Amino acid sequence: MSGTQLTVTLSGGGPDDARAVVRALEGTFGAPDELPADGNATVHTATFDGESGAGSAGSGAGSAGGDGKASRRLSAPVTVTVQGSPEAVRRASDTLTQVFTARDDGAASGDQEQERQLLLEP
Fold this sequence. Notes:
Structural class: alpha+beta
Helix content: 10-25%
Strand content: 25-35%
Oligomer: single chain
Shape: globular
Largest sheet: 5 strands, antiparallel
Radius of gyration: 13 Å
Order of helices and strands: EHEEHEE
Number of helices: 2
Distance between the termini: 31 Å
């Protein structure tokens, strides 16, 4: 896994919620391999292979209001697991906590990769 590759696994909510989370990361990581689309899936996955030339974290998220939270609300809680280099995981976690109401549910580190789980609340 390259230094900028990030794998995102989402469960809970529906495909619209999964797409909202993935789109929130586009400003930081560029476009994913594909957007979650299967309405029957209970788990959605997206992989980001590169780094965006965009500005600050969350810049593609459609922020609104004084608190920086996304104007697009989630319909249900979404559990998000991000996996990649420690830097990519940190950037993804920072972006998601700026855009959504999030609870950090822990992290695990390996030799060259890190994994972090967040609970995003509506």
